[in-house]
Amino acid sequence: MHRRAVLAAGSAVAAGLAGCTALADRTADHDVGMSAHAFRPDSLVVEVGDTVIWENTGSRAHTVTAYDGGQPEGATYFGTGDFESEAEAREAWYADRAGSIYTGDRFEHTFKVAGTHRYYCIPHERGGMIGEIVIEE
Predict the structure, then answer these.
(1) pLDDT profile of the chain (137 residues), mean per 10
(2) pTM (predicted TM-score)
(3) What are phi and psi of 95, to 5 degrees?
(4) CATH hierarchy code of domain 31-136
(5) Which of 48, 52, 62, 97 is 20 to 30 Å apart from 81, CA to CA?
């Protein structure tokens, strides 16, 4: 077999396996996974009263941190580390990495207010690790 044919076959196998990885992530026992720099999926639609489970499926420490101005009126602040606000979560993370969840760790939150709830990962926000949970009635 010629070198180009081998490379093409290898690329096809890699592309096929990439699809398997994405499928495996969706069928796992969590709602949102965390890769190196992304929430997967980065947008999720659920109903009022549903609990969303985030799991760190990557190899880096992450946070789930709600944006103070990114929640519907009347919504409870949410995030890893049981902080009362985004500012408190940021300060604690920069002081001693408080609020981090590591590979295999989970965080869950029950949403009681309809609307869009925006959140991010403190150490990876600049890299685009931002997500949203849309809660429908």
Answers:
(1) 37 40 50 96 97 96 97 96 96 97 97 98 97 97
(2) 0.79
(3) -75, -45
(4) 2.60.40.420
(5) 48
Q: Could you tell me the residue ranges of all domains in the chain?
A: 1-29, 31-136
Residues 6+ apart with CB under 8 A from 33: 25, 39, 40, 54, 55, 56, 57, 58
Pairing of strands 32-34, 51-55: parallel
Report how far Cα 77 is from the mean position of its chain's Cα atoms. 16
What is the DSSP track for 10-38?
Answer: HHHHHHHHHHHHHHHHHTSSSSEEE-SS-
Evaluated on CA atoms 35, 37, 41, 46, the torsion sign reads positive
125 exposure class (CB count in 10 Å sphere: 0-12, 13-18, 19+): middle
Contact 22, 57 (CB under 8 A): no
Distance, CA of 34 to CA of 32 (rounded, Å): 7
